[in-house]
Specification:
108 residues, 9% strand, Helix-turn-helix domain-containing protein, HTH_17
Length: 108
């Protein structure tokens, strides 16, 4: 299993664990972490492993799910986890395509 597959598996397991916690699911199916459905920039940084400034920059250009609370960024938990999973899939496909291209190039 490659690195991307391991990361994807870990994301799936983390999502399943969060969803299985009785206190984690709100009435509308929202995922909560420490009783919150949205995280501060620092909390999102800890969850994702993405640097604080990178998260802010990505939010500014609309690359990561977020909303504003005054001048502060908030990152909804479920959309953030889904975004991480979709990014992992996208990167896996990109790597797969690159490898297939390299194989085709080498065998031509």
């Amino acid at each position: 299993m490659g690195v991307m597959e391991q990361i994807l598996q870990q994301l799936k397991e983390m999502t399943e664990k969060i969803d299985s916690l009785p206190a984690a699911a709100g009435k509308d199916g929202a995922v909560l972490i420490d009783g919150k459905a949205a995280l501060t920039t620092n909390e999102a940084k800890e969850l994702t492993g993405i640097g604080r400034q990178n998260l802010i920059d990505m939010a500014k250009i609309g690359k990561v799910p977020h909303f504003m609370n005054g001048s502060d960024y908030r990152f909804p938990v479920r959309p953030l986890l889904k975004w991480m999973e979709s990014e992992a899939y996208r990167n896996m496909e990109k790597k797969k395509t690159e490898k297939e291209f390299d194989i085709m190039r080498l065998t031509s």
